[in-house]
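Class, look over these structure tokens:
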Amino acid sequence: MIDIDGSEKSGSGTILRLAVAMAAIKGQSLHITNIRHKRPNPGLKHQHLESVLTAAKLCNAEVRGASLGSSELWFTPKEIRGGTVEAVIETAGSIPMLFLSTLPICLFAHIPVHLHVARGGTDTRNAPTINYLRNILLPVLAKMGIEAEITVQKYGYYPKGVGEATLRVKPTPCLMPLTLETFGNLNAVGGVSVCTFLADRQVAQRQARAAQGLLSQNGYQTDIQVVNDQSNPIQKGSSITLWAKTSTSVIVGADSLGELQKTAEEVGREAAQRLITELAVQPTVDEFLADMLIPYMALSEGRSVFLTRGITEHIESNIWLMEKILNTKFTLTKLDCLYRIEKIS
């Protein structure tokens, strides 16, 4: 039995998601208490509940305590089968976060996984955009041998959600190590700017122009794709995702969301400034990608390493959890403006 106190470290939903994923992969029962203890509304919310239930579908798990508001959960996994799985969030809860919860499990399935998620948010607060996962996370994971792709049927935003996306994964139980130690030379800066049913106000174009303007002022020429989406007439919204690629196969990213009382220009400049801040210190992984990579490094064979700008509470939480459940060992070393994160065993 794996026992986890969800109030440790960040006390966030990330601990729940990763604990469930690792329990499924190890085939061991999980008991977790104090779920999301340090968050304003503790316990399971819609998106966390659906993440648990979707994980359970993937491995035919028995689950107790899986209800809204629950702070304690028992998760007993069986075989990870794979195949087609349907999930429904029912709110603007993050589809990318559900994908982050389940992708590690899918790697250990018997057959390829086709995970379709409906009625959620593709681009929401406190979560990566769907295009961040598509253009930054998945290409980096491909370096570890992971074959996965995401397609978007409907973009979804706060407060209604009603977004829809599909994750397809080829099982890859033996992961190659990830070694990103040198930033290299900057090859290209790109991005994608999306708006849904806001083409009449040129929101996607304005986000892109503002981002390009600020990046140009700082010496970066940028190619940003503009998408005037019409997939979701129920919920208007927008986002922009930017990335930089280097000669050493490094991909550093940033994103930003459209919101009420926030101009399209502000959205574009916000994402651009975040990318500029990252590039100023030449990391090999941006600080948001860093915490996402920790579980895959822990599951891989041999030594993995990257350099990142800061140590967030999610990075600390994920390292703590992987060391506790998988008996791996990470080291964190300060190097001038960067931190070197290495999985050594």
Summary: The longest strand covers residues 186-196. The CA atoms of residues 3 and 34 lie 11 Å apart. The first helix runs from residue 13 to 26.
